[in-house]
Amino acid sequence: MQVCDDAGKIYLEVSRTGAVTRDEQVIEEFIRCYVAASGKNFPHTLQPLMESHGVMFNPDRPMVMYESMSLALNHLDNSEADLELNKASLDIAGKRGNVTLDYHLMSAGKVVGEVSKKLLLGSLREYCPDTMAGIVEEFYRLKARGTRLGMDDAG
Description:
Shape: globular
Strand order of the largest sheet: 4-7-6-5
CATH architecture: Roll
């Protein structure tokens, strides 16, 4: 399935194989755990990842774009789902960064699937701890006010 504009530019592409569930509880559980994990992308995961590579996005125009997501389930009857970050990586290509976040989908304490998210970072520059501290402080200030930043749900 593809969502595209009149000029044929593809904005969303979905492909799937295997069994399908229509169990609303299973679907809701997954959506809730996915959104909760995505809400931790910045600063919990991205800030230390960027710091470890000595780069950060432009504080005046932060570019953090969601590129793709893949999901593989071992079975469909997963109750009480939770996502646990398994691995986070950042590959730098000039002023761009490609982030991969790999999660284990957990249910009843067991791995029942894998989720992988890819994000793009733009306008990378040298990491500055003071500047990043200001970005994180502003993020939490706006979040407390209930203001959407674009990066608070970058996934």
